[in-house]
Amino acid sequence: MTFQLPKKVTIVEVGPRDGLQNEKSLIQTDIKKQFIAELRNAGIKEMELTSFVSPKWVPQMTDAAEIVADCLGSGARSIVLAPNRKGIDRVYMTNCRAVAVFVGVSNTFNQKNINKTTKESLSELQPIISELKEKGYFVRACISTAFYCPYEGKINSTDTLELCRQFVRFGVDELSVADTIGMAVPNEAYFLFSQLKQEFPRTLLTAHFHDTRKLALANILACLQAGIDRFDTSAGGLGGCPFAPGAAGNAATEDVVYMLERMGIDTGVELGKLIRAVEVIRPHLSRPIESTYFRFYQQTASFSE
Ligand code: HMG
Ligand code: MG
């Protein structure tokens, strides 16, 4: 029996967006900028910086334009989320060239998150995606509730695949497929991502696990075996969608990087510097950092293995 592993994995850091959107206390824009700078310094090459959503729905993201103005790194892919035409028009006023649209497989979740049915979102997003592609943008589609929904329960994988199919037809460059409430188990992760890999060989496929039940690392290992080599993670394990009750943070970047590097898989991320990024944001959070690597690091200053 062979243990199939990639030599290299791309970490897509979602801390400044997913990580902070659920944070109760409003964090100063300058602190967010420092956080982003330290993440870049640690070797992160792809990152969700912020989202152009309604400030009434997610006040933490009100400073999106200022973040983008000051944090577009050179040689790195900086992605911003936008849910609708108004969000896209705000993106056009910046120099950002990579956009993530987002939609839930679950209709109920989609309504709670963006006040539209999944079908209405698709109708709105199709011409937007064509327009973005014509203008030369990189487009990522984030597929929420791909496994389970906090309102509808288990999601049929055929529904998830069908939604992914629509976005691939619309011309997206990347699918980021999410376990929004952190309920998937490794055989489910392996099954869905194997099918995605088989059906969409020319689309970048990224797995996005929330770590509610501490299965994110196990799910990532299952995805590696399904041939997936891109993972959304959040420094400090921050994150969660304000409209998905019960969702904990994302897989912690430091835990994922630690596991992968120890397995001989190159992430391009330096753990020591990554911890510096976590230290920048930590004093401004209303919750403790729960990642395993960070806790060990705090207990033993010399912790490196
Ligand atoms: P709505 O209330 O239906 O929108 O919200 P509306 O068109 O009726 O407009 C309402 C007000 O918002 C208006 O302002 C609009 O101008 C304004 P008013 O006239 O009342 O002063 N507005 C906007 N302002 C700024 N930017 C915009 C925008 N759109 C409308 N883009 C809307 C609909 C989509 C705006 C709202 O539901 C929303 O912002 N939702 C975002 C929710 C969100 O950010 N969720 C988290 C991100 S997704 C996620 O975390 C999941 C993911 O991580 C994967 C996973 O884990 O599953 C990606
Ligand atoms: Mg998420």
Structural account:
This protein is α/β, with parallel strands linked by helices. It has helices at residues 15-21, 29-41, 64-71, 85-92, 107-114, 118-134, 157-170, 186-199, 216-225, 253-262, 271-281, 292-299; strands spanning 10-13, 46-51, 77-81, 98-104, 138-144, 148-149, 153-154, 174-179, 204-209, 230-233. It has one domain: Aldolase class I (TIM Barrel), CATH 3.20.20. It has 12 helices and 10 strands. The strands form 2 sheets. It has an 8-stranded parallel barrel, surrounded by 9 helices. Helix 8 (186-199) packs parallel to helix 9 (216-225). The chain starts with 9 loop residues before the first strand and ends in a 6-residue tail after the last helix. The model has no long low-confidence stretch (mean pLDDT 96). Bound molecules: 3-hydroxy-3-methylglutaryl-coenzyme A (HMG) and magnesium ion. The site of magnesium ion has 6 residues, from loops.
